[in-house]
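> call design_seq(struct)
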């Protein structure tokens, strides 16, 4: 008799090659391919994935679905928090629409929250699917095609203490990675994977990196590949810590104005290239379309874990509903400039959802009060929706007084996820 019972367990090492990897390859790759080279490629990748948590749902002995949790870090309003990156979600065609992914995500969220991860992000194949798992959309980074027109205007701008150096990424990886870590400490929404996984970039050594320095400190970086004379210079993320880094990187591109027809790269979602210089010519090719071009999404896994993020001077009581991880009633206090989280005991005497900082220290009666879903909470924490928009999206019930308190507590912000996974 065939065993059709469903179980979930963590898979590691060589077992990944027979369970999770084939499912992911079928879902995201061009298949089938020659078995031996495929297995060799999977095996080489194992060393870079050792930090990942890979869960597999089995029907009997057969792997039916899988999901991967990447232990990452993310900057959220002044604090760097442990973040779960969800990736590699795939289901065997014969096992689809049977709830495997929903169960995998619940298990993954729970395990990673219990190990200290406060927030979670992902790149969805369809946003509405992951909305059901408590995620809210982020603004998408901008995909820019910059043409050489007008670059000469900035080529000779003076940048005191500025210098540029070109390297293969294999030789400059440490400097590049230190710069990324610096941005992690400064930019809202910025995320960084485990170092072990990003060393694949170093070991593949398949990109140039231009480092812009001011007074010997890296102020900008751009990974790129050339694509033949007269074609495009294909850049990755255009990263700068301010005006000096940006100008130096543009000057480097200007040195290639007669070599390439255009330069492509990604900018943070709040980038404003239209103001960089006069006579600039570019096209914004940012695209939102499932399944290949969805915007990233995020959610909160632990309300208590948000304590200490930078907020406005306001106090509000929120009831978070319809979520197994952040449900409960909470007093959110920003009067010191850093968020204090107090869970409100239920009538039976238990805390709303675990014992947060200051648990039981008051009910917050008399405070403005709002009801939020996990999406509404995440939208406010990340700053992507105004309280009025939260209510309009169906992510909560917020009256005018509570809306103003939440608007003060969580001012608008633009998260830039950065890491691709």
């Amino acid at each position: 008799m065939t065993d059709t019972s469903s179980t979930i367990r963590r898979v590691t090492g060589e077992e990944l090659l027979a369970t999770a990897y084939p499912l992911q390859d079928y879902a995201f790759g061009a298949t089938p391919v020659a078995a031996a080279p495929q297995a060799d490629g999977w095996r080489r990748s194992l060393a870079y994935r050792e930090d990942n948590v890979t869960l597999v749902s089995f029907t009997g002995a057969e792997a039916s679905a899988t999901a991967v949790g990447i232990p990452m870090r993310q900057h959220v309003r002044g604090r760097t928090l442990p973040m779960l990156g969800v990736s590699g979600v795939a289901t065997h065609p014969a096992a689809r629409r049977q709830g495997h992914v929903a169960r995998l995500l619940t298990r993954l969220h729970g395990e990673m929250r219990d190990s200290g991860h406060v927030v979670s992000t992902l790149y969805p194949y369809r946003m509405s699917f992951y909305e059901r798992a408590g995620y809210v959309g982020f603004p998408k980074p901008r995909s820019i095609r910059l043409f050489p027109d007008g670059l000469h205007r900035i080529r000779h701008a003076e940048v005191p203490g500025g210098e540029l150096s070109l390297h293969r990424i294999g030789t400059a990886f440490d400097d590049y990675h230190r710069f990324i870590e610096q941005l992690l400490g400064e930019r809202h929404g910025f995320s960084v994977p485990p170092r072990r996984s990003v060393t694949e970039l170093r070991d593949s050594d398949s990109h140039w990196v231009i480092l812009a320095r001011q007074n010997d400190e890296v102020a900008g970086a751009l990974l790129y590949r050339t694509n033949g004379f007269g074609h495009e210079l294909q850049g990755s993320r255009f990263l700068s810590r301010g005006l000096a880094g940006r100008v130096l990187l543009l000057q480097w591109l200007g040195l290639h104005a007669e070599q390439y027809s255009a330069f492509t790269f990604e900018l943070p979602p709040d980038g404003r290239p239209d103001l960089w210089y006069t006579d600039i010519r570019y096209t914004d090719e940012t695209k939102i379309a499932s399944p290949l071009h969805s915007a990233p999404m995020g959610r909160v896994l632990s309300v208590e874990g948000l304590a200490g993020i930078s907020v406005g001077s306001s106090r509000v009581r929120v009831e978070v509903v319809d979520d197994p991880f952040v449900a409960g009633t909470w007093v959110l206090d920003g009067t010191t400039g850093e968020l204090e989280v107090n869970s409100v005991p239920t009538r039976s005497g238990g805390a709303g959802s675990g014992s947060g900082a200051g648990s039981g220290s008051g009910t917050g009666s008399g405070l403005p009060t709002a009801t939020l879903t996990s999406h509404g909470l995440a939208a406010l924490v990340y700053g992507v929706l105004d309280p009025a928009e939260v209510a309009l999206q169906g992510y909560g019930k917020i009256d005018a007084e509570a809306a103003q308190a939440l608007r003060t507590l969580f001012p608008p912000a633009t998260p830039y996820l950065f890491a691709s996974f």
